[in-house]
Amino acid sequence: MKQNKTQYGYLIILLVLLCCIALWSVISGQIPIGLNDIKHIISPSSQVVYSESGIKLSMIEEVLLTMRMPRVIMAMVVGAALAISGAVMQSTVQNPLADPFLLGISSGASLGATIAIVLGFEVGESIFSELSIPVMAFLGASVAILFIFMLSLKNNSVSTLYLILAGTVINAFCAALSNALVYIAEDSEKVRAVAFWTMGSLSQVSWTQVGIVGVGLLIVLVYFLFHAKELDAMMMGNESAVTLGINPNVQRVVMIVLVTILTSLVVSFCGVIGFVGLTIPHIVRSLVGSKHHWTLLYSAVVGAVFLVGADWLSRVLIPQSEVAIGILTALIGCPLFAVLLLTNKKRI
């Protein structure tokens, strides 16, 4: 009981840290926003027309409500979603290097979105045009995971080894098809759009997209928390899971499908953002242990902190420009993972 209180206490401290980093990310950038500006926006006054920096308050309000806030909240949601997806994948396939990107889920989603962009499905003002990239990304991820399951079947059960091998093959195949589509595309604007999208971006997110991914994250996280004991058992191996009355094959399929849905939502709106799902769960396990009740909660919060910080860096690192967030997560995540390998060789 005392240990639980301590763990919850540290979790609350992390949540406070997340709120502080999110607030800093909201008010800082090319257009600075003061706390008094936020106060005037919340409580409008006809006497106050300009912000502390001399910019019209109406412009500050538009930047705050339509750009900064949805972007920062999406960074929280995406960071949490990718981190818990990585934690669950590593446990279900019993491989510390597993994450949605390794198994080809994200590359399948990326291929679907690339098809939508190159073929011009998103051009126009119809509902189909607006939803073409998310829908195609989801279809791409679904087809990829279907082939992965088909290739990984062994004696009417899903082999974890074959799952990794099949995922590697599908990942390479989808990446090759995406590159081929970009290579033969004649429109340079579409090529640039695909290139920037495949490196990840939170610059064009809307409140609707935040709501969709947020609801998906909430549903999947609640399911995983209610099945944390099954994840604990599966991490120890199929024999241990069966001994405890758990069908590892059924649970593995269900959990990978949920991860596929969640990853597809993230990739469809924000592109490919790597190394969050691979690195964050290992950092969390080295701090709080391998019990999934804590691993999932801490992974969600630490993943959110990590991506909000990375997104802030992507906006301010180069003046009057923006670095693709996928580049930053890789540049930060690779050294972090290397340090983890060096310091926890016996545990990873």
UniProtKB/TrEMBL annotation:
<dbReference type="GO" id="GO:0033214">
    <property type="term" value="P:siderophore-iron import into cell"/>
</dbReference>
<dbReference type="Pfam" id="PF01032">
    <property type="entry name" value="FecCD"/>
</dbReference>
<comment type="similarity">
    <text>Belongs to the binding-protein-dependent transport system permease family. FecCD subfamily.</text>
</comment>
<feature type="transmembrane region" description="Helical">
    <location>
        <begin position="7"/>
        <end position="27"/>
    </location>
</feature>
<feature type="transmembrane region" description="Helical">
    <location>
        <begin position="253"/>
        <end position="276"/>
    </location>
</feature>
<feature type="transmembrane region" description="Helical">
    <location>
        <begin position="160"/>
        <end position="185"/>
    </location>
</feature>
<keyword id="KW-1003">Cell membrane</keyword>
<feature type="transmembrane region" description="Helical">
    <location>
        <begin position="296"/>
        <end position="313"/>
    </location>
</feature>
<feature type="transmembrane region" description="Helical">
    <location>
        <begin position="133"/>
        <end position="153"/>
    </location>
</feature>
<keyword id="KW-0472">Membrane</keyword>
<dbReference type="InterPro" id="IPR037294">
    <property type="entry name" value="ABC_BtuC-like"/>
</dbReference>
<keyword id="KW-1133">Transmembrane helix</keyword>
<feature type="transmembrane region" description="Helical">
    <location>
        <begin position="325"/>
        <end position="343"/>
    </location>
</feature>
<keyword id="KW-0812">Transmembrane</keyword>
<dbReference type="GO" id="GO:0022857">
    <property type="term" value="F:transmembrane transporter activity"/>
</dbReference>
<dbReference type="GO" id="GO:0005886">
    <property type="term" value="C:plasma membrane"/>
</dbReference>
<dbReference type="InterPro" id="IPR000522">
    <property type="entry name" value="ABC_transptr_permease_BtuC"/>
</dbReference>
<feature type="transmembrane region" description="Helical">
    <location>
        <begin position="205"/>
        <end position="226"/>
    </location>
</feature>
<feature type="transmembrane region" description="Helical">
    <location>
        <begin position="72"/>
        <end position="89"/>
    </location>
</feature>
<protein>
    <submittedName>
        <fullName>Iron chelate uptake ABC transporter family permease subunit</fullName>
    </submittedName>
</protein>
<feature type="transmembrane region" description="Helical">
    <location>
        <begin position="101"/>
        <end position="121"/>
    </location>
</feature>
<keyword id="KW-0813">Transport</keyword>
